[in-house]
Amino acid sequence: MDKLVTLEEIRAAEKRIAGVVVRTPLYRVSRARLRMAKAVEPEFDLYIKAESEQPIGSFKLRGAYNMMARLTPEALRLGVITYSSGNHAQGVAYAARGLGTKAVIVMPENAPAVKKAATTSLGAEIVEVGPASSERRAKAEELAAKFGYTIIPPYDDAAIIAGQATCGLEIVEQLPGVGLVIAPVSGGGLLSGVATAIKLAAPHVKVWGAEPELAADAKESFESKKLAEWPASKTTRTICDGLRTQTLGTLNFKHILSYVDGVTAVAEDEILAAIRTMLQVTSLVPEPSGAVSLAAALFHADELPKANKVVVVLSGGNLEPELRKSLEDKSAAHPHH
Q1: Hey, CA dihedral for 142, 145, 146, 149, is it positive or negative?
Q2: By the 8 A CB rule, do 282 and 312 touch?
Q3: What's the pLDDT score for residue 335?
Q4: Could you tell me which of 122, 121, 139 has the C-alpha nearest to residue 130?
Q5: Does the active-site annotation cover 315?
Q6: CB 72: neighbour CB atoms within 10 A?
Q7: pTM for the complete prediction?
Q8: pLDDT score, position 80
Q9: What is the pLDDT of residue 226?
Q10: How many Cα neighbours within 13 Å face the side chain of 29?
Q11: According to its UniProt record, which protein family does this protein belong to (predicted)?
Q12: What's residue 243's pLDDT?
C-alpha cells in the first residue's frame, strides 16, 4: 500500500483507460483576448488542460475507470460503492455503466443538484448523509461490509493515483517545452498523480498545487511535512465544492511530498475572477474547483517558479447554472473589472 506509483503502472493505466477516457486537448490562452477582457496578462505562455471535456465533465473518470477495469467478475457482479460530493461519483457511475456493474454513491445532502442529477442519470443509486466527508466514508464502509460492494475511494489508492496520473503524462507529451504545471488539490488524487507522472517522465518540469485559502490544509501539510486536517466547518466555507476535503489522503501525501514543488492558496475573489476570465477569454467552462489553478497562475505568479510555458489543469467543468449566470451578469455590469 505504501509503495509509490511507478511510471510502468501509469503507462499501464493509460492503455487500460484508452477508448473510454478522453485524451483531453491543451488550449493556448490568447494574450490578445486577455488584454481585451482587461484580465491579468501573465508573462508566460499559458495553456489550459481541459479535463472539463471528459464525458463526465471532469478528470475523475481516469482514476475510477482505471481501478474498476481491474476488478474481478465476482466483484463486478456484487457492485461498487463510493463516497463523493460530485465528480468522483459521476466517474464511478459512468465507469460502472460501461462495465455493466451496479454503483452506489454516498453523497452529502448539500451536494449540488446538478451533480446529483448527473449521477442518477448514469444509473447510480444515491444514499444521502450529512455534510462532513468523514460521514460519507463511514456510511460507504458500512454498506460495503453489508452487501459485499467494492469501495472505489475518491483519491487515497494507488490505482486511482495511477489513473489520474495519465493526465500528467498527456501534458508532457502534448507540450514538450512545458516548464510548470499547476493542478488543483483537495484529497490529492489529481495533484499526486499529475506530479508523479511528470517527475518520472520529465523531471525538470515543476509541479505546483493550488487550493482555496479557506480550505488550505494541503498547503499547511506540504509546508509542515505533517498531514494536517481541517474541520468541515472551515473547509465548507469555500465556493469550491470539489475542494472541501478535510485532509489529503495518506498515500497521496506521500506522493506529493516526493514529487510536488509547492502549493499556493488563492482567495475566493481570485477564484471568481479566474472563472470569469475563462468564460470571457476561452470557450471553456470551469467549475470553481477547476479554476483555482488558473487563479494561482494569474494572481500568484510571484510565488511560482519562473517558466516560459505554464499549463493549468482545468479539473472540471460542472459549473452550477445560477453561479454562471451571476458571474456573466457581473461581467456585463463591470466590463473593466
Answers
A1: positive
A2: no
A3: 54
A4: 139
A5: yes
A6: 9
A7: 0.92
A8: 98
A9: 95
A10: 34
A11: Belongs to the serine/threonine dehydratase family.
A12: 77
Cell numbers describing residue 9: 503502472
Integer CA distances (angstroms), 165 to 82, 83, 101, 326, in order: 20, 21, 25, 34
Say what the pLDDT of residue 86 is: 76
Q: How far does CA 24 lie from the centroid of its chain?
A: 14
What one-letter code names the amino acid at 161?
Answer: I
| Tens-place pLDDT, residues 35-75 | 888 888 888 999 999 999 999 999 999 999 999 999 999 99
Q: Which of 60, 115, 199, 206 is catalytic?
A: 60
- What value, to the nearest 5°, has the Cα angle with vertex 26 and ends 202 and 252? 50
* Sheet arrangement for strand 125-129: 125-129, 103-108, 80-83, 150-151
Query: How many helical (H) and strand (E) elements, i.e. helices and strands, does the chain have?
Result: 15, 10
Q: Which of 212, 211, 178, 193 is nearest to 307 (CA)?
A: 178
Catalytic residue at 289?
no
Low-confidence ranges of the chain (pLDDT < 50): 336-337
What are the structural domains of the chain? 7-58+158-333 (3.40.50.1100), 60-151 (3.40.50.1100)
Residue of 85, 133, 293, 315 marked catalytic:
315
As given in the structure block, the three cell numbers for residue 268 are 475566493
In the numeric block, which cell numbers belong to residue 334? 463591470
Which of 244, 267, 249, 240 lies closest to 191 in space, CA to CA? 249
